[in-house]
Task: inverse folding
C-alpha cells in the first residue's frame, strides 16, 4: 500500500516550529517510501481561523522546502482539503454512528453538567461525563431531537474495554476505557469536534500513518474507536516527542521565537532550519550534524525517532545557520539572499549600482555573519550617503588622546595616496601607525569608527577601498571635527 501521510495545521496562528517539525517528519517518511504527503487545513474554529494565517502557514512550509502532493492550493480527489467545507460529511458520519449504536444524543444542559462535575470532584470520582443519556431510549431521543430540544451527539466508548495499539515511536500503548468518558463528536450547533473531523478526514483521505505530537496521544484511543465504528482501516500511529526549551519546559514564547516566520525574518536560511529541525528527536548518524534534505530522505524512518523530549537550542541553530552561510551557499547566492535584508535594514531599496559597490566586501561579510539580518548593519556605511555613529563604539574608542593625531595623519596620508586599492591602503596605514608608534587596536579602531560608524564592521582596508577615497576622507574629517567640538 502506498503510504499516505498528512499535516493538518490550524489557521488560528502562525506555523509553530513544533508543527513544522511534525510536517517535516511526515514529509521525510513520505518521500523515503515514495508515498503521498498531504496538507489539509483544520479550520473548524470559525472565530479564530483566518485566511491570513492560512496563507502565512503555507508560505512558511514552502519556504522551509516542504512541498505536498495533495491538499490546499494543490488540489486532489478530496476537494479543497479544508474542514470548514466538509461539515455535511461529518454530520453524515455522526448520523451513521447514531444508527449503528456507536453514538447517542445527549440532552444534558451545560448547567447540569457543571453541577454533576462538581459533585463528582467532591466525591473523588472522575469529573468526566457520567453517561446519563446513554441509556435513553432511541425513539425517545429521536422525538426530543425532532421537537428542537438542544442536544449534542456523544460517542459511546465500548465498556468495559481497552484500546491497544503499537506506536512506532513509543511501542505498545494501552488506554483503559474507564478513564475515557463518552466524548462529544457533534456540538449543539451541528459543528464537529476535533475528534470527529480529524478522524473522518483521515479515513476519507486514506491516511496510512499519523505522525503527530505526543500531546495528542490521549486523543488517539478516541480516534481509533471512531475509526473502528466506521469499519475503516486504522492508520499506524507515531507520537513525536514535544520540543522543550533548555529549561526542560515545553517550548513557548518565553524561550524566544517559536514560529517559522520569525526565523525567516531574522535571517535564517531555510536549509539550516530544515537541517536543525530534522535533528530534534532523530539523527542521521552519530557523526552527522550538517546534511542535505536528500540525505535525510534516504535515511529517515519514523521508527528511529526518539521518544525523549527534544531540546530546541537557539544557540546551536545560529551556529548551524552560520555554517550554512559560510560553507553551503555560493558568494552569488549569499549576495542575492542578503540584499533584501540589507534593504529592510536601510528602509529603502538598494539600486544595482549601489549593491555593486558592496560586492568586494560581501565575501568578507559572508565569512563573519551567522544571520542574514546582520548584513544590513555591516554594510550600511557603504550603502547610506551619510553616517550615523554607534554611540557605544564612539565612547569606547574615540576618547583616547591618541585618536586626533591618528585621524589627522590618516587624512594626510590617504589624501596623498596615488592608487586607491586595498593593498596600497593597508601599506599606507600600517606605515602611519609605525611612525606614530601606535598599536593596531589604538590606530585602526578610530579609523574604523570614523569611517563606518561602528567598531564592528568588515575588514578595514577592504572597507575603505570599497567606500572610495572621497567618502573616506570626508568621514575622517567629519569625525575629527566632532572630536574638536
Result:
Amino acid at each position: 500500500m502506498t503510504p499516505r501521510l498528512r499535516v493538518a495545521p490550524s489557521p488560528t496562528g502562525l506555523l509553530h516550529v513544533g508543527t513544522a517539525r511534525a510536517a517535516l517528519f511526515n514529509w521525510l517518511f513520505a518521500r523515503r517510501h515514495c508515498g503521498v504527503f498531504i496538507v489539509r487545513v483544520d479550520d473548524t474554529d470559525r472565530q479564530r481561523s483566518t485566511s491570513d494565517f492560512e496563507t502565512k502557514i503555507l508560505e512558511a512550509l514552502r519556504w522551509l522546502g516542504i512541498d505536498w502532493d495533495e491538499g490546499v492550493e494543490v488540489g486532489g480527489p478530496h476537494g479543497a482539503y479544508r474542514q470548514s467545507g466538509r461539515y455535511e460529511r461529518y454530520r453524515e458520519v455522526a448520523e451513521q454512528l447514531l444508527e449503528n449504536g456507536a453514538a447517542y444524543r445527549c440532552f444534558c444542559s451545560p448547567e447540569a453538567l457543571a453541577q454533576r462535575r462538581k459533585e463528582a470532584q467532591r466525591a473523588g470520582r472522575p469529573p468526566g461525563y457520567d453517561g446519563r443519556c446513554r441509556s435513553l431510549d432511541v425513539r425517545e431521543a429521536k422525538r426530543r431531537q425532532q421537537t428542537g430540544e438542544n442536544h449534542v451527539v456523544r460517542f459511546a466508548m465500548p465498556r468495559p474495554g481497552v484500546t491497544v495499539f503499537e506506536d512506532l515511536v513509543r511501542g505498545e500503548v494501552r488506554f483503559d476505557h474507564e478513564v475515557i468518558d463518552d466524548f462529544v463528536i457533534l456540538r449543539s450547533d451541528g459543528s464537529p469536534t476535533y475528534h470527529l473531523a480529524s478522524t473522518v478526514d483521515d479515513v476519507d483521505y486514506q491516511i496510512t500513518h499519523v505522525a503527530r505530537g505526543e500531546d495528542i496521544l490521549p486523543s488517539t484511543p478516541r480516534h481509533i474507536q471512531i475509526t473502528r465504528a466506521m469499519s475503516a482501516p486504522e492508520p499506524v500511529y507515531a507520537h513525536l516527542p514535544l520540543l522543550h526549551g533548555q529549561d526542560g519546559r515545553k517550548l513557548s514564547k518565553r524561550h524566544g521565537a517559536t514560529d517559522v516566520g520569525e526565523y525567516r525574518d531574522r535571517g535564517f536560511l531555510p536549509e539550516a532550519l530544515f537541517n536543525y529541525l530534522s535533528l530534534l528527536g532523530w539523527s542521521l548518524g552519530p557523526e552527522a550534524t550538517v546534511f542535505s534534505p536528500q540525505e535525510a530522505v534516504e535515511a529517515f524512518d519514523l521508527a528511529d525517532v526518539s521518544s525523549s523530549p527534544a531540546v530546541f537550542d537557539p544557540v546551536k541553530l545560529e551556529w548551524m545557520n552560520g555554517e550554512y552561510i559560510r560553507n553551503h551557499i555560493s558568494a552569488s547566492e549569499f549576495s542575492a539572499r542578503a540584499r533584501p535584508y540589507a534593504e529592510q535594514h536601510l528602509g529603502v531599496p538598494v539600486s544595482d549600482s549601489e549593491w555593486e559597490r558592496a560586492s568586494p566586501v560581501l565575501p568578507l561579510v559572508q565569512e563573519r555573519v551567522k544571520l542574514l539580518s546582520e548584513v544590513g548593519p555591516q554594510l550600511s556605511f557603504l550603502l547610506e550617503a551619510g553616517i550615523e555613529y554607534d554611540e557605544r563604539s564612539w565612547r569606547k574608542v574615540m576618547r583616547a588622546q591618541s585618536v586626533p593625531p591618528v585621524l589627522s595623519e590618516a587624512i594626510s596620508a590617504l589624501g596623498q595616496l596615488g592608487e586607491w586599492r586595498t593593498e596600497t591602503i593597508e601599506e599606507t596605514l600600517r606605515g602611519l601607525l609605525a611612525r606614530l608608534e601606535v598599536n593596531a587596536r589604538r590606530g585602526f579602531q578610530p579609523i574604523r569608527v570614523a569611517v563606518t560608524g561602528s567598531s564592528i564592521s568588515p575588514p578595514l582596508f577592504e572597507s575603505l577601498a570599497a567606500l572610495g577615497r572621497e567618502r573616506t576622507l570626508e568621514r575622517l574629517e567629519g569625525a575629527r571635527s566632532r572630536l574638536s567640538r
